[in-house]
Amino acid sequence: MLKRVPKTTLKSLMKKKAHIRVGTAADAMVELNVLLFLHSLAEEARTKAFEEKSATIKAHHVKAVSKVLVRNSARGCLGLN
User: Fold this and answer.
1) pLDDT above 70 as % of the chain
2) DSSP class of residue 80?
3) Could you give the CA distance from residue 17 to residue 20 in angstroms, rounded to a whole number?
4) Which N-terminal residues, if any, form the signal peptide (predicted)?
5) Other beta carbons less than 10 A from residue 32's beta carbon
């Protein structure tokens, strides 16, 4: 199981940009978004492994899928979809 990032560390990272307002539940939303991203990464890596007729998910499956997912998630954040 992944360890959680302490709330103080997360809030200090989010407050580095002084012109961005950080809401009260922003740290929870960031954590939920990370979990959602990891879930979709695992699902896509499982699909990639299945396509290659592999019983286990290996590092090259995750690497191949992560490039696409990061690009798509960045486009979604920018509203380019």
Assistant:
1) 88
2) -
3) 6
4) none
5) 11
Residue 1, pLDDT score: 52
- DSSP secondary structure, 10-79, as one string: HHHHHTTSTTS---TTHHHHHHHHHHHHHHHHHHHHHHHHHHTT-SS--HHHHHHHHHHHHHHHHHHHHT
Distance separating alpha carbons of residues 28 and 10, to the nearest angstrom: 10
CATH of domain 28-81: 1.10.20.10
pTM of the full predicted structure?
A: 0.69
39: exposed, middle or buried (Cβ count in 10 Å: 0-12, 13-18, 19+): exposed
Instruction: Round to whole Å and give the CA distance between 72 and 7.
Output: 27
